[in-house]
Design a protein that fits this description.
The protein is of the alpha+beta class. The chain has two domains: 336 residues, BirA Bifunctional Protein, domain 2, CATH 3.30.930; 95 residues, Anticodon-binding domain (Rossmann fold, 3-Layer(aba) Sandwich), CATH 3.40.50. The strands form six sheets. Strands 3, 7, 8, 9, 10, 11, 12, 13 and 16 form a nine-stranded mixed sheet that branches. α1 packs across α10, α2 packs across α6 and α11 runs parallel beside α14. The radius of gyration is 24 Å and the shape is globular. The structure holds adenosine-5'-triphosphate and magnesium ion. The site of magnesium ion has 3 residues, from β13.
């Protein structure tokens, strides 16, 4: 993309309404624009990152054996009356009447709809296990929408639902989700710690939330500091193996880590030596639940088992806050000049800054670099505007591309361009072809 042809409405002023850094930077970098309280338009740069995050979530769900589909945003109130949640959900649910006076709602989550699909089409244990998921907009009429996309009213969520023959099989699905979530967040450059949590209106006993530690987080958390040393890394886990998935769950959940709803000071003191006890703030970027037969009992989702008996299916639901993740990643990765995107989610792989637009040699070198990167499957942003170098650098720093190639007549006389890391600020002078090769290597694991 050439910046002169792009739509990147960066703001010079810091918007007064934004209280936390990720919200300020998303507005300043021209990523989002508020449409009304807690509802945002995704401008091209923000939309690009949203799509990259979605892509990673899809890839990791499919890798785990989960099946993508798409359910609508608008749902009929009938199903929610069946489960009993139409009354229970309260004011967070946006209720709508259609022209025939029928009660509809904008889905805050999809347990009812998916259970209805399941009971219409599945009746035998032979069709299990089954995990279906979608990435779809949700609406929750939050009492206090704030912090930009972090607590919106309309937000994008991946929600997945597992159907299993018994508790044991459903717990394997739970563990499989935990493993896939650890991989997902690490690919986005994030450490998200599974913490024992409270089940809220979804219901159920087994549940973990995934938290990214950040001062601006809305949740209060308590944990053993050893847990922050754990990394999922490059390991391969067989998602069909009950033992392998359970081993990961045990490794990542055996140390004390809880949100304030389940925190128990006595247990905390018993289990964690004083020098490792931490309390901090965190951003919830996902949650997994096992809730047994709550919905299948209420809605009659039954399968016949191998002995011919009719059994209610065991279910769980599993969510990732796709749009909230943009805010969480920025909270975890920025400096006073702007955003620093991890390679896994960056909107463009590298920025090309032409120090002297209109200089024949510089223009030709930039075009050459641009084309060479595109041929290699990379997605560069070329700042081809007739701006001062300082202004071009400031824009690149603000929008946070992890790598910048700077091209100017003086370097070109020596046959070099400059490759700069946004994270460390370190620069290296390289022949243009070498800079391209370097970027190809850096992104090899991310394309
Ligand atoms: P919270 O406690 O933050 O209100 P929740 O526990 O009600 O969230 P879940 O039902 O677990 O949310 O939804 C799955 C994920 O969706 C959450 O982990 C979070 O990342 C994201 N999410 C929930 N509410 C919002 C919101 N209002 N805006 C953006 N993302 C949200
Ligand atoms: Mg939650």
């Amino acid at each position: 993309m050439r910046l002169s042809r792009y739509f990147l409405p960066v703001l010079k002023e810091t918007p007064a309404e934004a209280q936390i850094v990720s919200h300020r930077l998303m507005l300043r970098a021209g990523m989002i624009k508020q449409a009304s309280a807690g509802i945002y338009s995704w401008l091209p740069l923000g939309y690009k990152v949203l799509r990259r995050i979605e892509q990673i979530v899809h890839e990791e769900q499919v890798r785990a054996g989960h099946i993508p589909m798409l359910m609508p945003t608008l749902q009929s109130a009938e199903l929610w009356r069946e489960s009993g949640r139409y009354e229970d959900y309260g004011e967070e649910m946006l209720r709508i009447k259609d022209r025939h006076g029928r009660d509809m709602l904008y889905g805050p989550t999809n347990e009812e709809l998916i259970t209805d699909i399941f009971r219409a089409h599945v009746s035998s244990y032979k069709d299990l296990p089954l995990t279906l998921y979608h990435i779809q907009w949700k609406f929750r009429d939050e009492i206090r929408p704030r912090f930009g996309v972090m607590r919106g009213r309309e937000f994008l969520m991946k929600d997945g639902y597992n159907f299993d023959i018994d508790k044991e099989a459903a717990l394997h699905a739970y563990n499989r989700h935990l493993v896939s979530y650890l991989r997902t967040y690490e690919r986005m450059g994030l450490q998200a710690i599974p913490m024992r949590a409270d089940s809220g209106p979804i219901g159920g006993d087994d549940t973990h939330e995934f938290l990214v530690l950040a001062e601006t987080g809305e949740s209060e958390v308590f944990y053993d500091s050893q847990i922050t040393d754990l990394r999922f890394g490059e390991r391969e886990v067989d998602y069909d193996s009950v033992e392998e998935c359970r081993a990961v769950l045990e490794e990542f959940t055996s140390r004390y880590a809880r949100t304030d709803e389940t925190h128990d000071e006595t247990v905390f003191h018993e289990q964690v030596p004083e020098d490792r006890r931490r309390s901090a703030r965190g951003i919830e970027v996902g949650q997994i639940f096992y809730f047994g037969t709550k919905y299948s009992d209420a809605m009659g989702a039954v399968v016949v088992n191998d002995k011919g008996e009719r059994m209610p299916v065991h279910m769980g639901s599993h969510g990732i806050g796709v749009s909230r993740l943009l805010g969480a990643i920025i909270e975890a990765s920025h400096d006073d000049k702007g955003i620093i995107w991890p390679e896994g989610v960056t909107p463009f792989h590298a920025g090309i800054v032409n120090l002297k637009q209109g200089d024949a040699a510089a223009d030709t070198a930039c075009e050459g670099l641009y084309n060479a990167l595109v041929v290699k499957g990379l997605d560069p942003l070329y700042d081809d505007r007739s701006e001062r170098a300082g202004a071009k650098f400031a824009t690149m720093d603000l929008i946070g591309l992890p790598w910048r190639i700077t091209v100017g007549p003086r370097g070109l006389e020596k046959g070099v361009v400059e490759l700069t890391s946004r994270r460390t600020g370190e620069s290296e002078e390289l022949a243009p072809e070498t800079a391209v090769d370097r970027l190809v290597q850096i992104y090899a694991g991310h394309l």
